[in-house]
Design goal:
Blueprint: H1 2-16, H2 21-31, H3 33-40, E1 47-52, H4 55-71, E2 76-81, H5 84-90, E3 98-101, H6 107-117, E4 119-125, H7 131-139, E5 144-149, H8 163-169, E6 174-177, H9 180-188, E7 194-196, H10 200-210, H11 217-227, E8 232-238, H12 240-252, E9 258-263, H13 268-277, H14 280-284, E10 286-288, H15 294-298, E11 302-304, H16 311-314, E12 320-323, H17 335-338, E13 344-346, H18 354-362, E14 366-367, H19 371-380, H20 384-400, H21 404-412
Parallel strand pairs: 1-2, 1-4, 2-3, 4-5, 5-6, 6-7, 8-9, 8-12, 9-11, 10-11, 12-13, 13-14
Helix pairs in contact: 4-10, 6-7, 7-8, 12-13, 12-19
Length: about 425
Amino acid sequence: MYNLLVTLGQGILPIAALFSPTLKRFVKGRKEVFKTLSLELNPTKKTIWMHAASLGEYEQGVPVLEEIRQCYPEHQIVLSFFSPSGFEVKKNTPLADSVVYLPIDSLRNAMQFIKVLKPSLAIFVKYEVWPNYMTALQQAEIPSILIAAIFRPNHIYFKWYGRFMRKSLHKFSHIFVQDSSSQALVKDSGYAQVSVAGDTRFDRVSTLSKHTEALPKETQEILTAFSSEKPLFVGGSVWHEDMSFLGVALEKNSHNIKFVLAPHKVDKASVETILQVLPIQLQKKSVWLSKTNPQEASKASVLIVDRIGILNQVYPLAQMAYVGGGFKTGLHNTLEAAVYGIPLAIGPNFNKFKEAKDLVGLGGIQVINTNENATQFLELALEKSYIEQIKGIQTSYISAQLGATFKIMSQIAKYF
């Protein structure tokens, strides 16, 4: 049934792509995978392959990729993505020798992909368990690991009807999970090669906070001009649902705070949807990063970051932040902001995210679910004693979680 659904999907996707730019990239990119690999890979060199679903999973994989580059410089690295949002942003990353879309998980594609790559090791990030790729790797006797995984009892692997996916999960050579409850679930399912390593994102954000990449000169000049006179609030990966609760609070505090909003989707329609939720006065005082200049930005109250991939470089400029998704699809990455020890708020849908639950419990993150407590958060975020308190909580928590990459690399060393 799984293979039938995959086959049907392959047939339907080209038709659906006629009506969706995202699906068009999804389909077109996969047509060029094997050609790209033949042009970019050296058949005489050994290969390590990492697969990530999208940009967030890529960030979790980066600390491991960096260590692999350093420890195994004789190997070439292939990085694959499932979604266009990851591929388009990171297709030129220097951490990989070749970046491609992962071909659809048919047995034929999987066998061909593994035959072309001949990887010495395959690394999958977080939730990426593809049955036919796992079969192809197992048949070729290629070790494979899953890193930064986190499981819940409602996942299909642990249901009575999930035997097929459970067998695929058990084909990994080793699984690294983020917490002990995930480890217990996997062990109870009949698989013993599972270890608690933690979340590699802690290592990633810690490194980023110490070695922030420089923004393009023009972008830096705009941000500097925009934020030079007042404290800066950054709303990261926000949706219009987030702004429905934040908009009034932003207007009430616009006399003493500047606001950078980085929408999760940056196409024109999505950005305009977010702007329409803002109070009229803020709409009139808003500028888009792609369309403004330093002089104009300095007079604005709201700066819309209509570019993907630079949020990590914007957070260091903030004195306070809000991470989006907590009113919609699920919370985005809070650690990217928390690593800077600043007052931080999120929406109420955070229970599936361990680091957010931990920090909320410690008092290091505020939860917003009304216009009133959004306003209260912005006022509190300007108080020196509160700022110092939050910095202490966040810094201590993140420091205690470091080290997942080292544990994973210790296992990787056993395969070489």
